[in-house]
Amino acid sequence: MAQQSLKKLEVSERLVFQNLTYNKEHYCCNAHMIPVLLIMTSNAPDTYYTGLVKNYQETLTRLVGPTETLISGDTLQLKDYSKLDWPWTIFDPEAKKARHETVFPEECKKAFAMGAALVK
After folding, report:
1. pLDDT tens profile 58-69
2. How far apart are alpha carbons 73 and 4 in whole angstroms?
3. What DSSP line would sit under the chain, residue for residue?
4. What is the pTM of this model?
């Protein structure tokens, strides 16, 4: 988990570092703000990473440009959970499959629409 946290921090740091001035009065040197769409997919429930994504959104908005977010959680990791060497009992594979077939396509359409609106 610590390695993943470092990787996330590294990605975030590389997105914003070049815009920092280390000046209290004017902390960002980005003269041309760029709209951002941050999409996060996860096997965890939609609400699991809400705080983390909100923090990324605030940082990106301040240093890169106005940021919108979309979280698609409870995603399907495997097409066939029955082919595992051990059972995954923390969630219901059938419920995940049903969500993947009904909710996920709508979230993909929403992501596409958000991206299209971003470039207008």
Report:
1. 988 888 889 999
2. 18
3. -HHHHHHHHHHHHHHHGGGB---SS--B--SS---EEEEEE-SS-TTTTHHHHHHHHHHHHHHT--EEEEEE-S----S-GGGSSS---SS-HHHHHHHHHHHHHHHHHHHHHHHHHHT-
4. 0.77
For residue 119, what are its two tokens? 């470039």
Q: Residue 93 has which token pair?
A: 């594979």
What's the distance, Cα to Cα, between the start and end of the chain in Å? 38
Token pair belonging to 74: 């409870």
Does residue 19 contact residue 66 with C-beta atoms inside 8 Å?
Answer: no
The span from the CA of 102 to the CA of 31, in Å, is 42
d(CA 46, CA 29): 34
> Looking at the predicted structure, is the pLDDT value of residue 9 above 60?
no
